[in-house]
């Protein structure tokens, strides 16, 4: 049995789409970074009970690509303390528009009950994690003295 090969142009077209698909995602399935979409943004970020750091990125952005290993390190460092997530703002433009994203990468910190805060600090893991810890501490409510006495 003879199977005819597809035309060369079709093969190249299929390969290019496959390559584009691989380059669109900065974070793979094994990454500690939560991958957001327009459809899961509300459940993963807005309805979260904890602090969520969100990177709005574009897959073609060189600064976004450079931030990827740092963002993954932040996700590992903050595991159990805060959620570290990312959303492709090109693919999910509605989410980017909702938060006035004008440049990439943009990092916003979402604390329950408060408006999102733009992170303007250094783009290294220690600085980002320290900022997140401060936001987490501001989210913790004071424990009433009567509760503390009951633990005594």
From TrEMBL:
<dbReference type="GO" id="GO:0003756">
    <property type="term" value="F:protein disulfide isomerase activity"/>
</dbReference>
<protein>
    <recommendedName>
        <fullName>protein disulfide-isomerase</fullName>
        <ecNumber>5.3.4.1</ecNumber>
    </recommendedName>
</protein>
<dbReference type="InterPro" id="IPR005788">
    <property type="entry name" value="PDI_thioredoxin-like_dom"/>
</dbReference>
<keyword id="KW-1015">Disulfide bond</keyword>
<feature type="domain" description="Thioredoxin">
    <location>
        <begin position="25"/>
        <end position="137"/>
    </location>
</feature>
<keyword id="KW-0676">Redox-active center</keyword>
<keyword id="KW-0413">Isomerase</keyword>
<dbReference type="InterPro" id="IPR017937">
    <property type="entry name" value="Thioredoxin_CS"/>
</dbReference>
<comment type="similarity">
    <text>Belongs to the protein disulfide isomerase family.</text>
</comment>
<dbReference type="GO" id="GO:0034976">
    <property type="term" value="P:response to endoplasmic reticulum stress"/>
</dbReference>
<feature type="signal peptide">
    <location>
        <begin position="1"/>
        <end position="25"/>
    </location>
</feature>
<dbReference type="GO" id="GO:0005788">
    <property type="term" value="C:endoplasmic reticulum lumen"/>
</dbReference>
<dbReference type="Pfam" id="PF00085">
    <property type="entry name" value="Thioredoxin"/>
</dbReference>
<keyword id="KW-0732">Signal</keyword>
<keyword id="KW-0677">Repeat</keyword>
<dbReference type="InterPro" id="IPR036249">
    <property type="entry name" value="Thioredoxin-like_sf"/>
</dbReference>
<dbReference type="InterPro" id="IPR013766">
    <property type="entry name" value="Thioredoxin_domain"/>
</dbReference>
<comment type="function">
    <text>Acts as a protein-folding catalyst that interacts with nascent polypeptides to catalyze the formation, isomerization, and reduction or oxidation of disulfide bonds.</text>
</comment>
<dbReference type="GO" id="GO:0015035">
    <property type="term" value="F:protein-disulfide reductase activity"/>
</dbReference>
<keyword id="KW-0256">Endoplasmic reticulum</keyword>
């Amino acid at each position: 049995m003879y199977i005819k090969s597809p035309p060369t142009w079709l093969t190249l077209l299929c390969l290019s789409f496959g390559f584009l698909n691989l380059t669109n995602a900065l974070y793979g399935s094994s990454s500690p970074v939560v991958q957001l979409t327009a459809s899961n943004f509300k459940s993963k970020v807005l309805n979260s009970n904890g602090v969520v750091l969100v990177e709005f990125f574009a897959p073609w952005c060189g600064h976004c690509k450079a931030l990827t290993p740092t963002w993954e390190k932040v996700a590992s460092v903050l595991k159990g303390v805060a959620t570290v997530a990312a959303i492709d703002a090109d693919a999910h433009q509605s989410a980017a528009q909702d938060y006035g994203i004008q440049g990439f990468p943009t990092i916003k910190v979402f604390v329950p009950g408060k408006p999102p805060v733009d992170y303007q600090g250094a783009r290294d893991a220690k600085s980002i994690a320290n900022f997140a810890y401060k936001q987490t501490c501001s989210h913790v409510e004071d424990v009433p003295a009567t509760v503390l006495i009951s633990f005594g």
